[in-house]
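Reopening this one. Same input as before:
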Amino acid sequence: MRRIYYLLFLIFLGYSFDVKASDTVFIHETQIPVLIERQDNVLFYLRLDAKESKKLDEIILDFSKSTNLSDIRAIKLYYGGTEALQDKDKNRFAPVEYISGYRPGGTLAANPSYSIKCAEVGASEKVVLKGNYNLFPGVNFFWISLQMKKDASLHTKVLSDLRAVKVDGKELCCKSVSPKNIVHRMAVGVRHAGDDGSASFRIPGLATTNKGTLLGVYDVRYNNSADLQEYVDVGLSRSTDGGKSWEKMRLPLSFGEYAGLPKAQNGVGDPSILVDTKTNTVWVVAAWTHGMGNQRAWWSSHPGMDLNHTAQLVLAKSTDDGKTWSKPINITEQVKDPSWYFLLQGPGRGITMNDGTLVFPTQFIDSTRVPNAGIMYSKDRGKTWRMHNMARTNTTEAQVAEIEPGVLMLNMRDNRGGGRAVSITKDLGETWTEHPSSRKALQESICMASLIHVDAKDNILNKDILLFSNPNTTKGRNHITIKASLDKGLTWLPEHQLMLDEGEGWGYSCLTMIDKETIGILYESSVAHMTFQSIKLTDIIKE
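Same output, byte for byte:
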């Protein structure tokens, strides 16, 4: 009896002994890329409806022993204010976006007008963030930020558990709305909104040269994020250290004020990149639009061949591992049918076949104004190019892979929605057959995607592998996911998938193998216009 009185006395003095407060805090742990160069990355969102609680005392986090704490610079606690009364039933975890991935000049740190920093500490296995923050009588938003050191490894993984939230000397009941054991993966923002004076960067392509250099291409959209026709150049970023750092941007294709028309009426974009593995010559192909009055090229390109009426298909090449580039090479006359309205490449990347044939995916709007996907190829190291027949009608952006010697798979964006269209050719596009997986195995929300084939001899698992990436959803452009198939694309099993970014973005992506054990992906993420991540093959295909 004396012991009970003693405990009651201690409780009266303010000791909680794990007594739970009546309010509940809801927790959302993010699954988005952690940008190494950012001062703030959202790790957790917290939603607390303070019906009785008055003050947030502290939040306790545990970091896994497997987390390399020496790569972490700081963990921060921010208060994000309250929500509008009319939003009370929407159960949001933030009233605004605290860090923008799209505001020029504002993508690297939390917007100070949207949240207030309450605490900042260094990394340890147990982190205590002391808020001592008075709560608004209603919904209160908090969020926890992760800042990495600039020399953090791209392969660092952060695993964290929000252990406790304490208010008024008591521990709140915590309810998580996220999956368990989330792994936070590092990334680099290769291009941010506002870099080099450009409003936006879109349409990634990525390839690895014979020397191991990574070459990323993209649209440099100077004025806004609109498609051609606008002021757009093809930009290129080059990395010689596996994607950790990237050299100053180059412009493989840029027409400026050509033939007396303004720069915005000479835009060139939607690039695709190809490495000739026999010679290490690198090719970039893009669509050049001239004289379209700043209207959208998809509707403003017309039948014919000359540049005043129809978009031009142009190439640039590099023979020094992507450092310098040739003048534009116009191949429109070689591959376009005069009756077509618009011919352009499938953005992303092309391939070198086992026999040395160079292949780019293509798309064209035919004489009936219906889009179709196909391929173009060169058997003479890029001197001349040919096209045959479409793979499937009402399709657009496609990617190509050689799944067996001489057998090409074309994976296509399908305007009908729901799933990716897939076709096979054994004769460089003269004839096509529908693949059994077509429109069944790979869901999509009508968006560009990436497909690469990795020979058994070229990967650590010694297996023939198909890798695919896209927004893994039928609505919106979110949940960017890499998937692997071990049976030439017939099945894409859930155990061979890795989701990288749950957030909403533009959703385009491109894959390459960095080395035998590592995948590189350049994509339009929710946190930066051009985001690069390096993923171990064994993180997707677990033996």
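So the earlier flakiness isn't reproducible anymore. For the record, The longest helix spans residues 2-13.
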